[in-house]
Write a structure and sequence with these properties.
Length: 459
Amino acid sequence: MVGLESLAEAIACTLSESVKAYNIPKVALSFGMDDGEESEAYASKRSYVVKRLAGWPKDKLLDLSKAVQETYPTDSLQRKIEEFDSGQSCKISPITRQHLFSCIESLPPIQGKMGIIEFMEKLWSLSTMHASDIDPRCLTAQDEVYQHMVLNDDYSFPQILEYLSLKDMSNRKLLDVLEWAVHPLIRTDSDQHEYVEQINVHLKSDGLALVACDQMSGYPVFRVAANASGVQGSAKNLIFASNGPKPEIVLSDAINNDLLIVKNDEYCLVYDRPLTKNGLLWNQLVAWWAESNSLKVSDDTERDLYSRLYNSLSSPPEKLLFKTYFKTFRPLYAENLPALVPQVYLHYDPYTLTQLKRHRRLPRQRMDFLLLLSSFERIVIEVDGQQHYSEAGTPSPKKYSEMVSADRQLRLLGYEVYRFGGAELNDDGGESVIGDYFASLFRKHGIHKVTTPPKKDGE
């Protein structure tokens, strides 16, 4: 069944399963449906409701389904609501759902400190649900959970969901499962932290996260929420590491926003591959560099790319930040290390100051460094020298105002912007400042160290 008829059918099935026949006319009337006779409801509760919903527009039918769900909640109706309601803020894709179930299977038992039956009864009424056909000794779902997860322990949690046809649960029910799994009544301390951390790795792909929203006896209570921060849209045309004259860029296709560098392209790099769910990793940038230059991926190729990027930097503080990043974090994070991309063009202003005349030049044409941690998490790092806040060695409120205005615009677009004063990054304590910053940034965004060190060439 397709179209609005399936939504009307889901409403009718929910009411027919939840309401006695003699009450159907009264309940239907309370939800705004036409009145009818009890005899019609006795003949078929489902048909009684379906008949009265014929011709209802989508918006009215969707509002009704939400009202029915609030009074007589069923997961089948919730799934149908989610199918028709495009305004949901917490949507879990089928791919993320698969990853979450695989993740849960690899973690400690989901029930934590609680018995598995008690845990599942918080989410489903096992005693009133039919068992699967796998074990004929089990009549109810509760029997099957007890037999195979308490006595025998030969079903995993994702398996029992599949056998009981619960794996296609609504998004709302899946969110309940995740939130309940990390509730302090279930797990605390390092066990809770591990669950939250691992689940968030996968929720991140859909712009979601388990976030602490309350406390219970000093322990955090988590809810799944949309990650409000972040950049909408996909990254294209990453132009970076310019080590010569400014590139001249034209729109080769204005409809598709395709760019073409028509002059000075030999002085900059262009990465135009689509980002993965992990953004742009250093090993992906190395692979791109190898392919672009007909090289094999090796330590020498990696060093070659590192040198090319390093040579695009001009100031000692920028060079110290870049060098410290790879020296400190490349061994610890290996294949998980985000690419630290230097000298990235954000805006392109084709005019000279003379040509601009009365118009202002676009601010912040180039970012000092950019980290792409996912499709929506973009980290801008600026290293401020005197040119950021002075002119000819004299403090300039105008220059400072332009800088903070540009920061505001980036933050409103969803970028995270971090600034270092050039004086922070000196040979005395600069490495420590840089190390502390990136360690904290990676913790915040769930970037994990690798457990085994990377292999060298020939190993």
